[in-house]
Amino acid sequence: MLTRRQLEILIKLGEQPDKYQKAKDLAEQFHVSLRTFHQDLATIKKELKDEYVKIDSVSSKGYRLQIIDMKYYQSYIADLFDDYFNGYQFDDPISRAYYILMRLFTTKKSYITYNQFLDELFISKSTLSNDIKYVKTLLEKYHLSLVSHSTRGIRIEGYETNKRIMILKENISLGNQGLLKNKELSEEIRNIVSDVLNIHRYTISDVIFQSLILHVELALERMIAENYVDQEEVESVSETWEEYTISSEILTRLAKKYNIELKRPEVLYLSINLLGKKNYDEEDVISQELNDFIFKELAKIKEEYSIDFINDLDFRIALALHITPLLKRMKYKMQLKNSMTFAVKQNYPLAYDIATSITKGIYDTYGYKVTDDETAYLAIHINLRIEQNQKIAEPKRILIICPNRKSETLLLRQRFYQRFRNQIQELYITSTYNFTKVNPEEFDLIFTTEKHQDNDKLHAIHINYFLEEKDYARIELALNGIHDVSQLRNYFCEDLMFFGEAENKNQIIKLLCEKAEYKYSLKNLYKQVLQREELEGTYYGNQVAIPHPEQMIADDTFIALAVLKRPILWCGEDYARVIILVCIEKNNAKALQLWYFLSKLISDDNIVQKIANASDYKQVNDILMELNGLQ
Predict the structure, then answer these.
(1) Residues with Cβ within 8 Å of residue 460, at least 6 apart in sequence
(2) How confident is the model at residue 54, as a pLDDT?
């Protein structure tokens, strides 16, 4: 049977069937030596049935997976997952750790001795000691502890609610110890929950329904094993609430069917869980407090991203309807899991960044830390609204703020018309002292030849009076945006690239920031990027990290790139090898389109792998030139 790593290697090969991948690249991705990778591959080959799926190799190209029968392959992968998570692999340290957790979670509060684990796992004392250390690290994330007794052994201590959260989030299979693995029984639980919700006409989405079923099944599993939620772990809710009535009916039916005792804290816990999953109506939730919060966040988005959602009433309502149950889930520590988080980050990076800004506001206002998974759900809503608000490019009404006298602005006017005549509907130039006579709301774009704080408030884009090529590029971007992924080449430059090794995340961020600060005369870029890292991780999958400043502080849009020989730990358990420092110029909404096209680059495994193997600017530039055909 395959280990977790071997299973992941097989899945990785299956993501691009019939395409060769080099052993060296794959070994680096899985942080193993070439020898270990080849051993894993040999084991995988033995498991496969050649008439349905097989691995072949060409010395100059690498390895590829040939899927002969796709239906069989998909079923085979699903069976491997089931076998892995239900039958632990003792030659895999991660699998051993989860086996230890499973045994500790199913012991009915008793201890398990070290000798028992040694006999069950067939490992040495030193190996077990290392496994126990890893188990302790996992438990700490959920405010649980591993208590050791000199003669009795070890057991998990902490709130039952935290234990259940860990079991669900870490996908800890209860294996043969589980009492509800019978599919007919699981279906009966589903029917009971569905029936009670239907009787009360209580509406929840399909995704939320699936999540609720998991919580009910686990609650029943734990109660059968005599592991109950205590009163002190949950806040009391009114017994007149609909959620309490529904939870009581569901658990009463199940308790009667399985002949177990039902305690009130269990009803309270399920009530709170259900409360965080409810579909709310507009009149239920949009309190003045919430409305004020949303208005403040949308004003912040307009200020930071030059995207105006403030007058979009439908979006404000949708945001309120999403945030209300989210606040309840956070209050009761029941945030949702999201299997699409990395896909959302890769495909909608701008929307994800805006969602992160809102979650920072939630933390500042309500004191709740939003998970990456919940942030991704919020980003999906935001991206939908961004796409709906996209306008076809049309001639613009342009205002230029310039301190020169009217007779001295003819050159500037001529240069604008000479380069952008077809994109200009009207061009109006005013001096600073005459600005009060102008209504800036009547213009689509505002440029200024002087740097002044008041101009930033107007989202005026800075240009030089004597236009240079970088000014033309800035104007072009503001007028037309980015319309092709190949235009990303314009924002990479040799001065902002690094190829080599780094000891850690902060070192490489500082190196790239210093290069950019020197080239663009910037201040506080490094500080701004670190502030964004503290807010939420910037790992986007595929060994790619995209650090960027928390606020837009530059007059220029640029990308700095680091390609590392060896991956470095970025956040959690994620390693990054390709570091893309992105800086979007302030006051230019069109510049934000760079995120959209950057998402096409980072979500393409082939392009990312080519960049990871590049050793100089020319190679990177050649790869970027290939982006023309990337759709």
Answers:
(1) 401, 446, 447, 448, 587
(2) 85
- Quote the domain boundaries for residue 217: 183-275
Note whether 523 and 601 are same-domain residues.
yes
Q: How far apart are CA 566 and CA 332, in angstroms?
A: 41
Residue with the two structure tokens 């012991």: 107
Tell me the Ramachandran region of residue 424: left when phi exceeds 0, alpha when psi lies from -120 to 50, beta otherwise.
Answer: beta
Cα separation of 382 and 319, whole Å?
9
- 3-state percent helix, strand, coil for the chain, nearest multiple of 5: 60, 15, 30
Contact status, residue 254 vs residue 192, Cβ threshold 8 Å: yes
611 and 538 part of one domain: yes
Do 490 and 625 lie in one domain? The reply is yes
Q: Is the pTM of this model over 0.90?
A: no
Task: Tell me the C-alpha distance between 330 and 326, whole Å.
Answer: 6
- What is the distance between the alpha carbons of residues 325 and 114, in angstroms, rounded to a whole number? 44
Residue 433: φ, ψ to 5°: -75, -20
Give me the pLDDT at residue 176, please.
42
91's CB contacts (< 8 A; 6+ apart) are 3
Task: State the pLDDT at residue 184.
Answer: 59
CB-based contacts of 110, cutoff 8 Å, min separation 6: 155
Pick from 145, 123, 128, 126: nearest CA to 136:
145
Asked if 208 and 334 touch (Cβ cutoff 8 Å), the reply is no
What is the pLDDT, as a whole number, of residue 283?
46
Torsion of CA 361, 362, 368, 374, to 10 degrees: -110
- CA–CA gap between residue 242 and residue 200 (Å, rounded): 8
Distance CA 565, CA 613 (A): 8
Residues of the chain with pLDDT under 70: 1-4, 78-91, 108-109, 173-185, 205-207, 276-286, 388-393, 406-408, 628-631
Q: 154: helix, coil or strand?
A: strand
Q: Are 465 and 578 in the same domain?
A: no
Tell me how many domains the chain contains: 6
Q: Is 147:155 a contact under the CB 8 Å cutoff?
A: yes
CATH of the domain at 437: 3.40.50.2300
Helix ranges (DSSP H) in 521-572: 525-535
Same domain, 372 and 293: yes
Residues 572 and 593 in one domain: yes
Distance CA 209, CA 12 (A): 31
- Of 160, 177, 194, which closes a domain? 177
pLDDT in tens, 281-320: 544 546 778 888 999 999 998 888 878 888 777 788 778 8
Helix (H) or strand (E) holding 412: helix 410-420
Q: Sign of the C-alpha dihedral, residues 524, 529, 534, 535?
A: positive
Say which amino acid occupies 482.
I
